[in-house]
Amino acid sequence: MPTRTPAARPSPCCNVPGDPEIIFSYKIEQGPKTAELTIAGQKREIYNDTIIGYSSNGKEVVRVTVDEPLIERPDRFAMDTI
């Protein structure tokens, strides 16, 4: 079996703290049902699962939930829509 070699180190982006790491494996923790949608006549269920990414040595490097927080900014920060 050939060994994997990591890709070239990506350039930092998106204000991510620390050094970028490659995700070698992941796990999904099932979360609660948050929505039911009907799309093109088919019923879809949305769950707030948590996805956990691990590095090659098994260290957790990222944890992301499906639902993202909604941040409402005050009107004084609103862009001019004209």
Helix run count: 0
Number-wise, the strands total: 5
Percent of residues in beta strands: 35-45%
Radius of gyration: 19 Å
- The averaged pLDDT comes out at 78
SSE series: EEEEE
The structure class reads mainly beta
General form: flat
| Straight-line distance between termini | 60 Å
Query: Can you give the helix content as a percent range?
Result: under 10%
Low-confidence stretches: 1-15
The largest beta-sheet arranges its strands as 1-4-5
**Biggest β-sheet: count, sense, barrel?**
3 strands, antiparallel
Short description:
The chain has 82 residues and is an all-beta fold.
Features:
two-stranded antiparallel ribbon, flat, 82 residues, three-stranded antiparallel β-sheet
Account of the 3D structure:
By secondary structure, the protein is an all-beta fold. It has a domain at 25-67. The chain has no helices and five strands. A hairpin with a 2-residue loop joins strand 2 and strand 3 (42-47). The chain starts with 24 loop residues before the first strand and ends in a 17-residue tail after the last strand. The relative contact order is 0.19. Residues 1-15 have low confidence and may be disordered.
Helices and strands in order:
Blueprint (H helix, E strand, L loop, with lengths): L24 E5 L3 E7 L2 E6 L2 E5 L5 E6 L17
Antiparallel strand pairs: 1-4, 2-3, 4-5
